[in-house]
Amino acid sequence: MKNVFISCTTFVVMIFCILFSINYLNKICNEMSDINYKLEQSIELGNWRQSKNIVSNLTNNWEKFSDKLSIFVNHEELDNINSELSKLTQYINYKNKDESMASLHSIKFFIQHISKLEKINMQNIF
Fold first, then answer.
1. CA 106, CA 88: separation in Å to the nearest integer?
2. How much is the pTM?
3. What local confidence, expressed as pLDDT, does residue 119 receive?
4. Distance between CA atoms of residues 110 and 108, nearest Å
């Protein structure tokens, strides 16, 4: 009887941890997507000073969250975002709109990809 109780308790704790991690991951992805959208609007308008501030905010948030995300997510995905953020910062510093938008869309894709990989669905379970 004791073994059944321990097994059930472990299972329940595991389910809560999984749900917490997925909710936390979705919260981070949504927050990063919101900042990404603001940056995209700023770049399209050619407001480079505001874009520098927003990309700085995006980088700071990413540095804050990436350590925690490394628990849940493949490190290759995080490295891709880190690389694109470095490029994006330089593109904005040199006011290169085309490259900035391309890099920004890559970051958006990687964030969406992380979110899709961690969703609970049949494809990810099997």
1. 10
2. 0.85
3. 72
4. 6
- For 68-119, the pLDDT digits (tens) are 888 878 889 899 999 999 999 999 999 999 999 999 999 999 999 988 887 7
* Distance of alpha carbon 33 from alpha carbon 109, whole angstroms: 10
Return left, alpha or beta for 22; rule: phi > 0 is left, psi -120 to 50 is alpha, else beta.
Answer: alpha
Q: Closest Cα partner for 113 from 66, 81, 68?
A: 81
Q: Which token pair is 95?
A: 């006011």
Q: What residue type is 23 in one-letter code?
A: N
Query: Which amino acid makes up residue 53?
Result: N
Residues, the chain, total?
A: 126
- Rounded to whole angstroms, the Cα distance separating 40 from 4 reads 53
